[in-house]
């Protein structure tokens, strides 16, 4: 067990000290907002730490909120690592793009990376360590490949390199690109999309931990204004365009990258992520890739047996 793992709490403690942890979150975080040149509000949540020894930027997954990290924040606080979670347009309390605020929509995928970099600039954050989840992993790869304000190291958890879908790639691409371009269809939910509705733990494919899963959805039930539903066709099309750009590009990694993919992921494709990172094994800085066996997609809300060791190793990679 590395030194970081010792500061993680287990599920039993989470259940026992839930009220204490909720109060910790209230007392030790602050919400920030910024207006960009498109008059959109971009938001972030900062974990305040007195005399921090390290700092961390977090790009969350699609539809995630700062409160989702409250247990992880407690660990970071005890490790004296300050953190900032940044939300691009359409996410959490940042400006939504459509009048129907439940729909997860973007016009250009590049806008998400630009939003993150805009907030980093406003906060005077330049040389930083990055931890990203799911969609945040795809945004991070866009930043690393195409932006000037890049991290010095990045740990990507279950990055959205390609969707998990039981269709041949050429059929999936053709369907998504056609639907994502057609007027009136482009802003419709995809077949699996709908307004946010509380998920049941039994049969879910996001996390094995009932306590963490239900805490997350309990909070959403009380804060519906920051809940978000499924993606639109155009959102998926734009994400796929970015994925194909990254997959087909001959760029090389020149910063240290560590990817953890989930062995039982049914949200994003772990085989595609493995293929992508192995393609870069001869880069100037070859990325490190690891599969967490039997883990579901949502590592932050996973059971102790998956989340503690994995997140501790991500922190060790970033800071040691």
UniProtKB/TrEMBL annotation:
<dbReference type="GO" id="GO:0016787">
    <property type="term" value="F:hydrolase activity"/>
</dbReference>
<keyword id="KW-0378">Hydrolase</keyword>
<dbReference type="InterPro" id="IPR029058">
    <property type="entry name" value="AB_hydrolase_fold"/>
</dbReference>
<feature type="domain" description="Serine aminopeptidase S33">
    <location>
        <begin position="52"/>
        <end position="304"/>
    </location>
</feature>
<dbReference type="Pfam" id="PF12146">
    <property type="entry name" value="Hydrolase_4"/>
</dbReference>
<protein>
    <submittedName>
        <fullName>Alpha/beta fold hydrolase</fullName>
    </submittedName>
</protein>
<dbReference type="InterPro" id="IPR022742">
    <property type="entry name" value="Hydrolase_4"/>
</dbReference>
